[in-house]
Design brief:
By secondary structure, the protein is mainly alpha-helical. It has 15 helices and two strands.
């Protein structure tokens, strides 16, 4: 079955479109959470949505998606406000406030879920699917809700782009300019709660945190400006959502939510490994170059000291120059024309000495080192 055949299927097309909307809004809003160093915020809000899911069911008396999402949004916003209250009215740091809100609301959610399941109401069947998501149950009407939330979030980001950007990087300076920092932070947090609500049916409470954070983390490795980061995070989120949905359709019986998260996590791992200038491979190569450069400098300094009139310094430097660790370095310097080999009088083997070009290079490095500030 080809990709076009898969996307021609109504269910697959609906799930893929929903996953794309989820990836889009998560990538855009998650970028601000990452830059504000609130990576745990997505985890907190997603877990805080569980009691709202149960309350929405209790109020509606049925598994009505509108009531459930409204309840999830309500408890998510309450959790966000609790975090702001704890961090601004006490000495708790942001991570501590997020941890308190996460554990408190999730515990309440588990209690409510246990209560609902113990009532014997047949309508509660499948309510626990909000823990891990049930993308196959997505309907065209749900897409309209997701699309509306996504459009509203993107419109707010576009309208307050400069303000959100300033608050994310320097809230103190934003406050000195007279901007309503608290209101802007609340707005950003509420929008992230909206993104969490959008993804509940798709990936569930437990995995939604990855969708908020992972696209932004991956994008941050490749770009250096907020504009490019937000755009790339949106692209990564959309692509990961569609890939996860297609893989779920190909592999019958595989859950869509976890596959979406695995897709975006793969992008994160690749980005952490090979992103230019930031990836682990680049860092390892840079450290290797630095080690080679250091040994080169040490070899030149050693040979320069070996030519000094002080016998003790000369012997010590000559011993260092003969160290086996520097043999490869000395061979490289020989190829560069910075050292030459001379016979060792009264002993077997040969010794390295600086050429005029090598002496000039060694003296230049010594002068540069002495000129550095202490």
């Amino acid at each position: 079955m080809t990709l076009l055949d898969l996307l021609g299927d109504y269910t697959v097309r609906t799930v893929a479109l929903g996953a794309a909307l989820l990836g889009l809004v998560s990538g855009v809003l998650g970028s601000f959470a990452v830059l504000r160093r609130q990576s745990l915020l997505g985890d907190t809000l997603s877990h805080a949505a569980l009691p709202g899911v149960c309350l929405g069911f209790i109020v509606a008396g049925a598994r009505e998606i509108g009531s459930i999402l409204a309840g999830a949004l309500l408890t998510g916003v309450l959790a966000a406000l609790l975090v702001l209250l704890l961090t601004r009215r006490s000495r708790l740091k942001t991570d501590a406030g997020l941890g308190i809100a996460l554990s408190l609301f999730f515990a309440v959610g588990v209690v409510l879920l246990t209560y609902v399941q113990g009532t014997g109401d047949a309508a509660q069947g499948g309510l626990d699917s909000f823990l891990f998501g049930q993308a196959a149950a997505l309907l065209r009407g749900d897409l309209w809700i997701m699309g509306g939330v996504t459009a509203a979030a993107l419109a707010l980001v576009a309208a307050f782009w400069k303000e959100f950007k300033l608050v994310s990087f320097d809230p103190g300076y934003a406050g000195s300019l007279g901007l309503p920092v608290v209101a802007l932070e609340v707005t950003l947090t509420v929008m992230i709660a909206l993104a969490v609500v959008v993804g509940l049916q798709m990936v569930g409470v437990v995995l939604m945190a990855a969708m908020v954070i992972a696209p932004a983390v991956a994008a941050r490795q490749w770009v250096g400006t907020l504009e490019r980061m937000v755009a790339l995070a949106a692209v990564i989120g959309v692509a990961s959502g569609v890939v996860g949905a297609v893989l779920s359709a190909v592999g019958r019986g595989l859950a869509t939510g976890p596959l979406i998260v695995l897709s975006v996590s793969t992008v994160v791992l690749v980005s952490l490994a090979v992103a230019p200038g930031r990836g682990l491979v680049w860092e390892a190569a840079k450290r290797a170059r630095d080690r080679r450069r250091l040994r080169r400098h040490q070899a030149l300094a050693s040979l320069l000291k070996a030519a000094a009139p002080d016998p003790h310094r000369r012997r010590r430097s000559a011993d260092l120059a003969r160290d086996r660790r520097f043999l490869a370095v000395l061979a490289a310097l020989y190829r560069e024309g910075l050292v030459e080999e001379l016979p060792r009088p009264g002993a077997e083997g040969r010794r390295y000495v600086l050429t005029p070009a090598g002496r000039a290079e060694a003296e230049r490095l010594a002068a540069a080192i002495e000129g550095e500030p202490a």
